[in-house]
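The material for today's practical consists of a large collection of protein records. Getting from the letters to the tokens is the skill we practise here. To make this concrete, we reproduce a full record directly below:
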Amino acid sequence: MRIFAVLLSALFIFTAACTKKEETGEKAYKIGVAKITAHPALDAVEKGLMDELAERGIKAEYDLQSANNEFATAASIAARFKAEKVDVAVGIATPAAQALLNGLDKQTPIVFSAVTDPVSAGLRQSNFKDAANITGVSDMTPVKEQIELMNRIKPLKSIGHLYNSGEANSLELYKILFEVCDNMNIKLVATTVTNTSEVKQAAEFLVREKVDAIYVSTDNAVVAAMQSVTSTAEKAGIPVVSADPVSAEGSGALVAYGVDYYTAGRQTGIIIAEILGGKFAGDIPVKYMLTKDELTLYFDKSVGEKLNLELKIE
């Protein structure tokens, strides 16, 4: 009887310890992270969200996947996460988030990040509250301020733009850019690509059009081939202005102003923590990166010297 009592006591202590472990958030959650492709900005989001959860003491087992800019692969990743029964699925960039929303059941919380306009992309019906099991962080970029910045450095009569016509966020940014250029009396010369391999040819077309500068938005296909744009532009003495400061650094772009993607990742981690704490994803408003500490300015002085251009801070 005494041996039985000791064993029973040990079982009680073990059960209590396990319960306490779960109550203190030490449970290892399954988190699937799908990004549409690997490039510095999206990699920074991925790192930021993991750092945020680690600092909060939330233990997680990550399944990190990249679709390599293939929509079919993004759909396969969604099926993988469904089979794994992840606690939270994260879609970094619009196509990855769309694939998760289409491929997962309605009970699995989805958090997107680096999505320009979640409503126009069909991810949510409202930025504030939604019945769907999805929310996240937008990287809507300050297009007007970016073009004004480039215009201060070099007065623009024309600007070239290349973007992936298959990305919802890129189409939305093109519309905004068109309106900004129209209001500033700047001629917009635009061309489209369908994948990364077409970027160099598109950049060469813009160079032949003799644009005053080339604008690169947060288009994933173009950003993934940023070197093709900048090397082509540099030969023609044309500056490149980017909406992605993270990917612009060291790429040959002259100037960039936009979302700090590591900070966006930290904000994504905050939302994931709220969901793991019991909040319904649809009740969490979409986070927009609008404050000065959430935006970053980058200027490459060495590129400026080659082009005889400088940035004067007002």
